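Contributing new records

If you add data, match the layout below exactly. Sequence lines come first and carry their own label; structure lines follow with theirs. Keep one chain per record. Anything else will be rejected by the validation script.
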Amino acid sequence: MAQLTAVLASTHHPFYYKATTSPLEERPPFAAEWRRKVEAYRETLTAARPDVLVMVGADHFHQFFLDNYPQFLIGRAERYDATFYNEEREFGLPKYVLDGDVELSRYLHEGLLDRDFDFSFSHELKLDHSIICPIITVRPEADLPVVPIYTNIFAPPLPSPKRFWQVGRAIREVIDAYPSDLRVAAIGTGHLSLELGGPRQFGEHGPDPEFDRNAIEWLATGNIDAILENVTHESMAGAGNATHGFMDLLLMMGIAGDGVQADYVDELDLFHTREMYMTWYPNGAPA
């Protein structure tokens, strides 16, 4: 059977690439520390020696909008174009073409349907920075096939936090049952407290540092009970108007397992947001 060698959950910050590759005189003062933390985090994936990446993100109204936004979707393409024009223009992100793994996509899709998770699918999915940011940070070679999974964290009504957790648990079941010797890594990105376009966007820290501290603790300790007791759509909106991306991090905790402690945790308090980097090794730390 396939082996799930690593589960990675992190925030995604589209300005990381520009902040750490611009001429030195144009970089922000925190760029060097940011880069050191990301490169250390990258090693947690490298050590797991994956053959394929199952990647969880969300479309930022590039391909889907309020009139047609699937709750959960899996890509089933042979390859994926990535990076939209505004992401090139605003963030300086490069374009990519990523190979897909059609057979693993098919198996995951059918396995999730069998477990009563009614995923949409796409043969023509284009990927945005929720997938490309972690490619840049943890696999900049972009040399592994991907299976992209998109969730709805933007267009109400949203699935519940509990549903995101359940989807993560189901994805884990299907990966563990995949009749292959592939080494699979699951990588997902989301948000802690985050404000986009609102009055708290440009604060010295993220809009709700207390939420951030609690969220990192809950994720790192696998405390699903505390999350489901304290995290609702309303509480996330109170922490910042884009905080619902936390549910993608919750999904990744579901893939890692029930009550499982993270093997690697790091964070960085940046201007207007807190970055988080977390890794679990479900089958034991790499030798």
